Structures are given as structure tokens and as C-alpha cells.
Task: inverse folding
């Protein structure tokens, strides 16, 4: 028993050694970029693509001689997507002399680690933390991200319904889940703020219930011109089918939980004309194709979640360091906010809050059994 | 007023579907005092069988009526076979075990069947073909009730009447009632109790299969987990009406369906389940045996 335990200890230590950062080189010789996120545990699939993306970009820069003669060195730190671990990782990165940070991956750990970086005047750029607070609160002037915050979709949906389609009476329905309800709540506040339309209904349905005819009747009763639904495709397809059965012409607008092909295959003809927002289509972007090819060549697999966002973040960061000539926070911020960079996500820059401009969602409509991006 | 009638109709439709499933729970409970938690999965298997048969027949270009009849028949036969097998494998060996054992066995069966369909078929949602054609009525009626709702209500009513005739008027019905009353005495009088129990499972499963087919065609999609919530709701309806009582199950199902429909319509769908289960608690406080149930002093 004892032996097994000590064997485990040795294994754990060996693992820690493998995953921990390289021993800091002599300072001043290299530019140190910290990469923090979930690299082990069940959320590693979200974190490891970022490490790969950073490695790919940095290797290219180093192969070309680095930035102004200085090579880039990556300090990789695992936070297991746990806030309490993230503060340790952040402290460790700062003490190792990281000058900028790519990460963290999950919103919670990002929030926990940000004060530490802020005190050290270090710029942080996250590929995947979507909590709106991180940029909106204004508490973290050193934080940037290459992913659209959670409320963007609600905003895209609401603006589409109000400005493009000109609706004035909107019903908001959600599936009571974190994602769906959150989206509906954001939509509600945007509609109310705009003053252009009225929220006639705000209700949640039970996922998996046998029948949604009562809620559909209520939508009709309230005379809504459009339904904005926050949730996933099984409920969405039941609702659109029921609406068609009741011969309603109410528009149906939803989110990327619905913008999946299963929605169309299940709802069939009833899905025709339904709108759903989803990430902008990047599959035709040559940089995106190139980044994916590089990944395939280097690691032998297709990249995972947030790879393109991480690739874009690293590109933007490297470009900013190059242009600013230093890793000073103010100088980097200025470059990020004023200069556009070509990335797999398109040509992006950042607004004063730290959110990427040009990254976001577009609205798709089902036409002849396919989602068509509406420009 | 229109709105009220619409909600009434959708509540009745919902209740009718709960009733088809609830009958299985109540019949099995009435005869062997077991809550067959795998019943919701039998409903799901009925829907899947109908899906597979209907899809194949559509490929071969059969007319709609033939598809409906054959798919319905296949669903009924296949589900009944499952119901019978489940009883033989999971409950019969435990006939004389403490009452908790068959209950656990039932839950195990439910989880097994769900995972079996998940692995054998697909975890995805599948589009269910429209077996009940959706044709528009004339205007004042059109926005109150659809053709599918009407078919569901009619089918359920016919099945209820047939079931009542079966229980009250036939030999097997008499034997079922006798077995429910006192199993030992029925055995002594020459009734093959095991056969009667199997018959009960087969009838209950057949009803669930019809429910599965109707509801899948009504909402247009199925997957392996649809039996869970429907089963829980139907079980609630059976308890509400007084578990073990056949008219009670129907009444309980209708009351439950109407409560949910009106709660959604006049309060908020957020509270649909809250109202449904509050109603259950209130009724059980004032009438512990359910609406039409008989008081029983056995320990469960």
C-alpha cells in the first residue's frame, strides 16, 4: 500500500515537472509569454488547443528571428479551470517574469487571476472567457479577449428583430437553463433599453415536456410578432412545429444552440424561415484554413475548441509587442486598440473595453433546409 | 373566452396522452402492487418502433393509411413483447421478495432500456414522420383545435371505452379483477395468476405504445430519453387519481393536463410543474388514496 502511494507520488511529481514551466532563462534575453488555462482534468479539451495555437505562432515568430532580435519563450501553467488554482498559477507566472499572458480559458479562473496581473501591470488576453462582466465592469483595464461575450448574441438577435425586421412586440421564451435564460434576460434588457419594442412575454419552458401547445397559444394570445428563444434545438423544434400547426406567422429567432443541422432535420419543413444567430462563418478565411493545416501538420489532429480564437489572440499579441517595441501595458493597449490584425477570425482590433471588434455573430435563416448567413 | 377554450383543448390533449401511459402504471399497481418504473421506457420503445417501421415503409412508398396501421400494429406488438419480457425477467423472480426489491429492479430496468436504445439507436433527436395528417379546419374551429389533437382525443376515448368493456365484460377482465382483489384466493379458484399478470403487462404496454405513437407524431421528434418525463407525469397522474383505479388514472391524467395547461396560460409556464405537483400534494393531504382510490392499510 505504502509502496503504491509513493509510486503515485513519484508519478504525480513527474507529471508536475512535465507540465510546469521551463526554468526561467536569464532575464532580458527572451520575451516571456505566459499561457494559462485548463491543461489537465476534464476541461483540458478547452485549454490544450490554446497551448498548441500559441506554440504554432511563437515557433513561426522565433523561426524568423523573433521580435527585434529577441526570441519568445512560453511559460505554460495549468489552472484546471479552478479559480483557486488559477490564483496560484497567476502568482507563479508573475514571479517567473511573464510579461504578457494568454488565457485563462474559463471565465471563473480568469476573474480570480486578473487582480494579480493587474497589480503587476501585465496585459492579459483570453481566447475563451465569455462572461460579460470581465470587460464591461471596467475593473480590469489590462484585460482583452478574442471571443464575443455572452450577451453579444442576445444583442445581435434583438437588433435584428428591432432594426432589420422592425418588430415592436416580442415574446421571450427560454429553457430555464443558464445559457438560455441568460440570453433571454440580456435580450429583455436590450429591448427595454432600446425603447423601440415591448416585451409581451417572458417565460421558461420545461425541457423534454410532452407538449408545448399552451405556451405557443400564449405567444399567440399576446399578439407577439416575434419569439426570441434562448435554449437548444430540441425545444426550439417543438415550438416552431407547434407554431406552424397553429398557423401562426410569428417570426422565430434563436441562438447558436439552435443553429445546428439537427434543428433543421428534426423540425423539417417547419424550420423554414426560422432565424438563428451563430458565430460568423470563418471556414472560407484563408488564414483560418492555414492555421488548421499547421495544426494538422504539427500535431497530427484537427484543432479543438477555441483554437482559432487563441491563434488570433497570439497573433494580435505578437503584433502588438512588435509594433510597441516593448511589453509595457499602456503601449500594448494602444496598439491593440488602434491597429487591425489579420487573423483566422477576420481582421480584428479591440475596443476601449477590451472586446474584439470584428469577432462576433451573424444571423442565419433557414432557407431550403440550410442555414444561410444573412449579410 | 376563445383563449379559455384553446387552453381547455390543449389541456385535454395533454391529459389524454398522460392517461394512455398512466393506465399502464395503475393496472400493474392494481394487480401486483408494483410501481413499474420501466413503463415510461415502454412508451419510448413504442415510439421508436413506430418510427423505424414508418420510415422503412415510407421508403417503399406505402400509402399513409397503411403506414399508420402497420406502424401502430408493430409498435403495439413490439412494446407488448418488451412489457412481457421485462415482467418475466425483472419482476417475476421477485414476486415473493420484499416490496423494495422489485421497485429497485424496475428502476434498473428503466435505466437499462434507456441506455440500450441510446446505444442501439442514437443519442440524437430524430424527426418523427407526420402520421396524423395536419389539415386545417374551418376558421372558428381552426385556431382552437388541430386535427392531431382531435385524433389523440378520439383515439384515447375509444381505447378507454374498449378497456372498460374488457375489464367489466370479459372473462379475462373478471380474472384480472379477481387477481387484483386477492391473488391467493384467485389462484385457489383456478385462475392462472401468472398469465393474468402477463396479460396486464401486455395490455398496459400496448396502451403506452399507442401513446408513444400519437405523441411522437404530434410533436414530431423522438429520442431515447422521452420516456422519462412522460413516465413521471403519467405516474403522478395515476397517483393523483388513486393508483390502482382505472377511471382514477384517466381522471387524474385529465386533471393534471388541465392544471398544467391553465397554469401555463394564466400564470406562467415557469410554474407549470409547480402547480402540477402542488395539486398532487394538496390532494394527497386531504385524500391520501387519491381522487378515486380506495383506502388501503398495507405498508408500502
Result:
Amino acid at each position: 500500500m505504502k509502496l503504491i502511494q509513493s509510486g503515485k507520488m513519484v508519478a504525480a511529481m513527474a507529471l508536475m515537472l512535465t507540465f510546469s514551466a521551463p526554468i526561467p532563462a536569464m532575464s532580458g534575453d527572451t520575451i516571456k509569454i505566459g499561457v494559462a488555462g485548463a491543461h489537465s482534468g476534464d476541461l483540458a479539451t478547452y485549454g490544450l488547443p490554446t497551448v498548441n495555437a500559441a506554440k504554432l505562432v511563437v515557433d513561426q515568430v522565433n523561426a524568423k528571428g523573433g521580435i527585434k532580435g529577441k526570441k519568445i519563450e512560453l511559460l505554460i501553467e495549468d489552472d484546471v479551470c479552478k479559480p483557486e488554482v488559477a490564483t496560484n498559477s497567476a502568482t507563479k507566472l508573475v514571479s517567473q517574469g511573464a510579461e504578457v499572458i494568454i488565457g485563462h480559458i474559463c471565465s471563473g479562473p480568469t476573474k480570480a487571476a486578473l487582480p494579480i496581473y493587474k497589480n503587476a501591470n501585465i496585459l492579459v488576453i483570453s481566447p475563451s472567457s465569455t462572461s460579460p462582466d470581465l470587460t464591461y465592469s471596467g475593473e480590469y483595464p489590462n484585460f482583452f479577449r478574442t471571443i464575443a461575450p455572452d450577451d453579444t448574441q442576445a444583442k445581435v438577435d434583438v437588433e435584428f428583430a428591432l432594426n432589420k425586421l422592425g418588430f415592436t412586440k416580442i415574446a421571450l421564451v427560454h429553457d430555464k437553463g443558464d445559457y438560455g435564460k441568460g440570453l433571454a434576460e440580456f435580450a429583455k434588457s436590450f429591448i427595454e433599453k432600446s425603447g423601440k419594442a415591448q416585451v409581451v412575454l417572458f417565460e421558461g419552458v420545461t425541457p423534454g415536456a410532452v407538449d408545448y401547445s399552451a405556451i405557443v397559444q400564449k405567444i399567440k394570445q399576446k399578439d407577439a410578432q416575434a419569439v426570441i428563444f434562448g435554449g437548444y434545438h430540441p425545444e426550439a423544434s417543438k415550438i416552431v412545429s407547434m407554431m406552424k400547426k397553429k398557423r401562426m406567422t410569428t417570426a422565430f429567432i434563436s441562438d447558436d444552440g439552435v443553429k445546428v443541422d439537427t434543428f433543421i432535420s428534426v423540425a423539417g419543413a417547419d424550420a423554414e424561415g426560422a432565424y438563428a444567430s451563430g458565430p460568423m462563418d470563418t471556414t472560407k478565411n484563408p488564414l483560418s484554413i492555414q492555421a488548421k493545416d499547421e495544426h494538422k501538420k504539427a500535431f497530427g489532429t484537427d484543432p479543438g475548441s477555441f483554437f482559432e480564437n487563441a491563434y488570433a489572440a497570439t497573433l494580435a499579441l505578437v503584433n502588438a509587442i512588435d509594433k510597441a517595441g516593448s511589453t509595457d501595458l499602456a503601449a500594448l493597449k494602444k496598439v491593440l486598440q488602434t491597429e487591425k490584425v489579420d487573423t483566422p477570425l477576420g481582421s480584428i482590433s479591440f475596443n476601449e473595453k477590451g472586446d474584439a471588434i470584428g469577432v462576433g455573430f451573424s444571423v442565419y435563416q433557414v432557407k431550403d433546409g440550410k442555414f444561410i448567413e444573412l449579410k | 373566452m376563445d383563449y379559455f377554450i384553446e387552453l381547455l383543448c390543449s389541456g385535454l390533449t395533454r391529459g389524454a396522452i398522460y392517461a394512455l401511459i398512466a393506465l399502464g402504471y395503475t393496472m400493474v399497481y392494481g394487480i401486483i402492487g408494483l410501481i413499474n418504473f420501466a413503463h415510461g421506457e415502454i412508451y419510448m420503445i413504442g415510439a421508436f418502433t413506430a418510427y423505424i417501421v414508418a420510415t422503412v415503409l415510407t421508403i417503399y412508398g406505402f400509402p399513409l393509411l397503411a403506414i399508420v396501421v402497420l406502424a401502430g400494429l408493430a409498435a403495439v406488438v413490439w412494446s407488448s413483447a418488451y412489457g412481457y419480457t421485462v415482467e418475466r425477467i425483472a419482476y417475476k423472480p421477485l414476486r415473493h421478495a420484499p416490496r423494495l426489491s422489485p421497485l429497485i429492479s424496475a428502476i434498473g430496468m428503466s435505466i437499462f432500456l434507456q441506455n440500450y436504445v441510446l446505444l442501439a439507436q442514437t443519442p440524437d433527436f430524430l424527426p418523427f414522420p407526420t402520421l396524423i395528417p395536419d389539415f386545417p379546419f374551418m376558421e372558428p374551429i381552426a385556431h382552437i383545435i388541430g386535427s392531431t389533437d382531435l385524433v389523440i382525443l378520439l383515439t384515447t376515448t375509444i381505447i378507454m371505452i374498449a378497456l372498460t368493456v374488457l375489464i367489466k365484460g370479459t372473462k379475462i377482465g373478471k380474472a384480472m379483477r379477481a387477481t387484483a382483489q386477492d391473488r391467493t384466493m384467485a389462484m385457489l379458484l383456478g385462475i392462472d395468476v401468472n398469465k393474468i399478470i402477463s396479460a396486464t403487462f401486455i395490455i398496459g404496454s400496448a396502451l403506452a405504445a399507442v401513446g408513444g405513437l400519437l405523441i411522437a407524431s404530434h410533436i414530431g421528434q423522438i429520442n431515447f430519453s422521452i420516456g422519462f418525463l412522460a413516465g413521471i407525469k403519467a405516474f403522478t397522474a395515476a397517483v393523483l387519481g388513486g393508483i390502482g383505479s382505472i377511471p382514477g388514472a384517466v381522471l387524474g391524467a385529465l386533471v393534471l393536463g388541465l392544471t398544467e395547461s391553465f397554469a401555463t396560460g394564466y400564470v406562467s409556464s415557469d410554474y407549470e410543474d409547480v402547480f402540477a405537483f402542488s395539486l398532487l400534494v394538496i390532494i394527497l393531504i386531504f385524500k391520501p388514496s387519491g381522487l378515486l382510490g380506495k383506502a388501503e392499510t398495507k405498508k408500502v
Notes: The CA atoms of residues 31 and 183 of chain B lie 8 Å apart. Chain B has a mean pLDDT of 89. Chain B touches chain A at residues 3, 6-7, 10-11, 13-14, 17-18, 124-127, 134, 136, 142-143, 146, 148-149, 215, 218-221, 223, 225-226, 228-230, 233, 260-261, 264-265, 268-270, 272-273 (CB under 8 Å). The beta strands of chain B are 126-127, 221-222.
